């Protein structure tokens, strides 16, 4: 972990929720081994004097690893790791030991985190971080250093920027909270065929976005100007034009980042042709005041929980059995669009772009290879030369020269309203087992019973419970399956839950 990181090695329960189907006691496991194999949970803890904007939000995060992330290019054998500044305490996902007094039917603890021994009734006091390592150097990177373009330096003082970077299998997550800019950045990168594309995104996308937004959302060297928030909903053309400029800047930053990645991959094609296989889905959220800007490529999602008519048909009956007597009151609104072969318009687009290729979609995948129809990297589906560089067993039959997939993002602006409660940002591993409505209902019901609980970790637990039940095994049996083999039961998943009500999620040690 990076400088200023607090690593907790024990779990403590802050909730009284009982679920009958969770009965086993997991054996005691070394916490360091768990972090390198299973995943981690983290949260944002405010400092002593937060701004009005930061007082109105809370951030909970969790990541669950299934894939083995090592490749011939990798510099680290750990499949899960976490680095952060002082305000993002983290802990490995960890079952209690046999001697633990905790309920035996809950193999994990959804209580949130505190960084030090604290009074159960007192506020959290977080010391100001005295140093923040450069964001691009916190986790190991797989490209040789001499091939790496230097990211732009960030004109942000360490005392006003807090951040967290995590990896779980081939997933990467990046959270940056800027006091100077009164903003929150979240990046979730869901990789495939190896971790190099996601590592590159983790290192380079946020600095690129920061650079491209300078002069639009903030001024270089004048952080005091960024505290000025709109006093009312922008209804004029100038307000709409500003939102459009922000979205265009996000798109430009992603395009420049991919161009840099593919340029490096091209330079290394003879030595490391497997780079042409590696790619990633991208989900980026930038929140400034009440304005939420979203950019996605692939099938990661942003789902809003809002107070309105609830779609009970999208909720499994088992959910009501687990939370007897509780009726969900929030609706789920998906703010992003899934770029996958499940989307009819994406299928039509790709087929129309490749009229001479009768096998453009095979086995519900683009060229029989990818379920997603847009992705960062994955050069073998974008240019024939990258496909031809691969071993024959990995090549596709490339017809013509047009790309089969693109990195053209979908872009969205949303303004938070008084009925909105929280946002769930996640890679697609969450939705292999929960619908949008179920994910929102799970968080709402969990927080009704454990208001100080960790909702992101609760969703990770729910994935494990459902995956184990589907496979006919106990959760402890599932997590004892070797890394990589567990991918048969669930995918890597990264989850960020952002409360829009100023709720503080914490636990105490």
Automatic annotation (TrEMBL):
Record EC number: 3.1.3.16
Enumerate the spans annotated as PPM-type phosphatase domain. Answer: 155-500
Q: Where is this region: Disordered?
A: 221-240
Keywords for the protein's UniProt record, in alphabetical order:
Hydrolase, Protein phosphatase
PROSITE patterns xrefs: PPM_2
Residues spanning the membrane = none
- What SUPFAM superfamilies does the database record attribute to this sequence? PP2C-like (SSF81606)
Q: Its domain of life?
A: Eukaryota
Reactions catalysed, as given in the entry:
O-phospho-L-seryl-[protein] + H2O = L-seryl-[protein] + phosphate; O-phospho-L-threonyl-[protein] + H2O = L-threonyl-[protein] + phosphate
Q: Which residues form the signal peptide?
A: none
Give one GO molecular function term.
protein serine/threonine phosphatase activity
PANTHER family the record matches? PROTEIN PHOSPHATASE 2C, PROTEIN PHOSPHATASE 2C 23-RELATED
Q: What is this protein called?
A: protein-serine/threonine phosphatase
């Amino acid at each position: 972990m990076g400088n200023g990181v607090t690593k907790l090695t024990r779990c403590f329960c802050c909730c009284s929720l009982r679920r009958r189907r969770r009965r086993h006691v997991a054996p005691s496991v070394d916490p360091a081994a768990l972090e390198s194999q299973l995943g981690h949970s983290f949260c944002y803890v405010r400092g002593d004097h937060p701004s009005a904007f930061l007082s109105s939000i809370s951030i909970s995060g969790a990541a669950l690893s299934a894939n083995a992330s090592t490749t011939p290019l990798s510099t680290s054998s750990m499949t899960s790791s976490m680095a952060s500044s002082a305000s993002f305490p983290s802990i490995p996902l960890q079952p209690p030991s046999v001697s633990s007094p905790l309920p035996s039917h809950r193999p994990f603890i959804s209580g949130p985190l505190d960084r030090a021994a604290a009074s159960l009734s007192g506020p959290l006091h977080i010391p100001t971080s005295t140093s923040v390592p450069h964001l691009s150097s916190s986790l190991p990177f797989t490209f040789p250093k001499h091939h790496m373009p230097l990211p732009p330096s960030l004109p942000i003082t360490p005392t006003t920027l807090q951040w967290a970077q995590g990896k779980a299998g081939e997933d990467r997550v990046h959270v940056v909270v800027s006091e100077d800019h009164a903003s929150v950045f979240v990046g979730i990168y869901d990789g495939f065929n190896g971790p190099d594309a996601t590592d590159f995104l983790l290192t380079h996308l946020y600095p690129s976005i920061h650079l491209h937004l300078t002069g639009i959302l903030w001024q270089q060297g004048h952080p005091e100007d960024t505290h000025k928030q709109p006093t009312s909903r922008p209804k004029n053309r100038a307000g709409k034009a500003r939102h459009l400029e922000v979205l265009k800047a996000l798109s430009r930053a992603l395009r420049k980042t991919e161009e840099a990645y593919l340029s490096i991959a091209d330079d290394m094609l003879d030595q490391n042709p497997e780079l042409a296989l590696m790619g990633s889905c991208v989900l980026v959220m930038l929140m400034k005041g009440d304005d939420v800007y979203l950019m996605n490529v692939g099938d990661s999602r942003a789902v809003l929980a809002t107070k309105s008519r609830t779609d009970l048909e999208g909720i499994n009956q088992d959910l009501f059995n687990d939370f007897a007597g509780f009726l969900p009151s929030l609706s789920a609104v998906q703010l992003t669009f899934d770029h996958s072969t499940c989307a009819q318009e994406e299928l039509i687009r790709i087929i129309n772009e490749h009229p001479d290729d009768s096998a453009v979609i095979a086995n519900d995948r683009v060229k029989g290879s990818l379920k997603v129809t847009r992705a960062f990297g994955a050069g073998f589906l974008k240019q024939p030369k990258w496909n031809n560089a691969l071993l024959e067993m990995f090549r596709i039959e490339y017809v013509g020269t047009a790309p089969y997939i693109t990195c053209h993002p979908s872009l969205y602006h949303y303004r938070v309203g008084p009925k909105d409660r929280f946002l769930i940002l996640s890679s697609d591993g969450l939705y292999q087992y929960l619908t949008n409505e179920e994910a929102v209902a799970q968080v709402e019901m969990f927080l009704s019973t454990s208001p100080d609980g960790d909702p992101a970790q609760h969703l990770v637990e729910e994935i494990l419970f459902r995956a184990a039940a589907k496979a006919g095994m106990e959760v402890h049996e599932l997590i004892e399956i070797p890394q990589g083999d567990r991918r048969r039961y669930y995918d890597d998943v990264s989850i960020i839950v952002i409360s829009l009500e100023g709720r503080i999620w914490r636990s105490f040690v």
